[in-house]
Specification:
Layout: H1 18-31, E1 38-42, H2 68-77, E2 86-92, H3 99-104, E3 109-114, H4 126-134, H5 139-157, E4 162-168, H6 172-189, H7 194-203, E5 212-214, H8 215-223, H9 229-245, E6 246-252, E7 263-265, H10 270-281, H11 291-299
Parallel strand pairs: 1-2, 2-3
Antiparallel strand pairs: 3-4, 4-6, 5-7
Helix pairs in contact: 1-2, 4-5, 6-9, 6-11, 8-9
C-alpha cells in the first residue's frame, strides 16, 4: 500500500437508510472540503417509483432504498441548498434520468448525470471518471466527460443499449413549465385525440420500465403528428427546452437509438398509473405545474 494511504474498514451499513447517506456525506465534506463537489449514489435504481422489492435507488439487501424526498431531505439537513449546490450529482443506477427527478433536485445540485435506461452491472468506469477528475476540469466539462467515458467503456466491451446523459438542473424549470402547457392542451383535446395519442404511445422510445419514455422523442412524434397546431407547437417548445437542459447525451445500441437524455412518466396502463400516482405528485414539479398530471388523469379516464 502506498505510504500515507489508509483504508478505513466500516461495519455493515444499510445503503437504503437516509442516515447512511447523511453520515457519508458529512464525513466527506468535513474531511475533503472543496468548492466543487461530486456525489455519486450507486446501486439498483427505479426512477421515482418503487417496485417489489423496493428499489427507488441505493437498494440494500435488507429491502430498504432511498426515494427522492429522502435524498432531498438529507441534502437539506447538511446545508446543501440553492446557494450551496453540489457540482454534480451522479446516479450510477438504472432509470434515474427523468425530468421529474432532475427538476426535484435542482436546489441541491447544478448537474445530474445518469441513465434513462437500465445500467449494466459494471456501472460507471470509475478509473477513467476519477482520472478525469484529477485533471480539475470545469464542472460542465466534467459532467460531459462522465457521459463520454461511460459510453466509450461499453463500446469497448460491446454491451449495447446503454444511455448516459448530463443535465443542467436549472434549465429543467423551463422544461417542466413547457411540459405542463403541453399537458393542459393534450388533456383538453381528449377524448377526440385518444386514438392518435395511443398510437404515439406505442411507438415512442421507452425503457426497461415501459412507463418511462423519452421526452424529446415523445415531443418529436407529437410535433410530427396530425394533432392540432397549438399542441404541436407546445410539443416543439418542450423539445427545444430538452435540448437546452441536456448538455451531453450518449446512447449506444439499437434499442435506445431515439434517446435524447431525459425521460418522463407516461404509463399506458391505468392500474399502473393509479398505483404510483400519489408518489408521483409528491415530487416537486407538481407544486407549481400540474398540466402533465392533468393529462395523465384524463388519458387514463378516457
Amino acid at each position: 500500500m502506498p505510504p500515507g494511504i489508509h483504508i478505513e474498514r466500516l461495519p455493515e451499513l444499510d445503503s437504503g437508510d437516509p442516515n447512511t447517506l447523511r453520515a457519508s456525506l458529512k464525513w466527506g465534506m468535513a474531511r475533503y472540503p472543496s468548492r466543487k463537489r461530486v456525489v455519486v449514489i450507486w446501486n439498483h435504481g427505479a426512477g421515482f417509483r418503487t417496485r417489489l422489492p423496493r428499489r427507488d435507488i441505493a437498494y440494500d439487501d435488507s429491502g430498504t432504498s432511498l426515494d427522492m424526498n429522502e435524498i432531498d431531505g438529507v441534502f437539506d439537513s447538511l446545508g446543501i441548498s440553492a446557494t450551496n449546490r453540489l457540482s454534480i450529482l451522479g446516479f450510477d443506477a438504472c432509470l434515474m434520468n427523468m425530468v421529474e427527478i432532475v427538476h426535484h433536485l435542482r436546489r441541491r445540485t447544478r448537474y445530474v448525470v445518469g441513465s434513462e435506461q437500465t445500467e449494466p452491472g459494471d456501472g460507471w468506469p470509475y478509473d477513467r471518471v476519477l482520472g478525469a477528475l484529477n485533471g480539475n476540469p470545469t464542472v460542465p466539462v466534467m459532467a460531459r466527460q462522465i457521459v463520454t467515458e461511460y459510453i466509450a467503456a461499453y463500446k469497448r466491451t460491446g454491451e449495447t443499449d446503454v444511455t448516459q446523459s448530463a443535465v443542467d438542473t436549472l434549465a429543467t424549470v423551463a422544461t417542466i413549465a413547457a411540459l405542463s402547457t403541453l399537458g393542459n392542451l393534450l388533456a383538453d383535446s381528449l377524448p377526440a385525440t385518444l386514438p392518435s395519442l395511443r398510437k404515439i404511445r406505442t411507438r415512442v422510445q421507452s425503457y426497461e420500465y415501459a412507463d418511462y419514455v423519452d421526452l424529446g422523442h415523445l415531443c418529436t412524434m407529437v410535433g410530427a403528428s396530425t394533432l392540432a397546431n397549438p399542441i404541436k407547437s407546445a410539443a416543439r417548445k418542450v423539445q427545444s427546452s430538452v435540448k437546452t437542459a441536456v448538455v451531453a447525451n450518449g446512447a449506444y445500441g439499437p434499442g435506445v437509438v431515439n434517446s435524447t437524455g431525459l425521460s418522463v412518466w407516461f404509463p399506458s396502463e391505468r392500474q399502473l398509473y393509479l398505483n404510483f400516482r400519489a408518489k408521483y405528485v409528491a415530487l416537486d414539479f407538481y407544486k407549481t405545474h400540474k398540466g402533465w398530471v392533468k393529462f395523465l388523469d384524463a388519458y387514463h379516464s378516457a
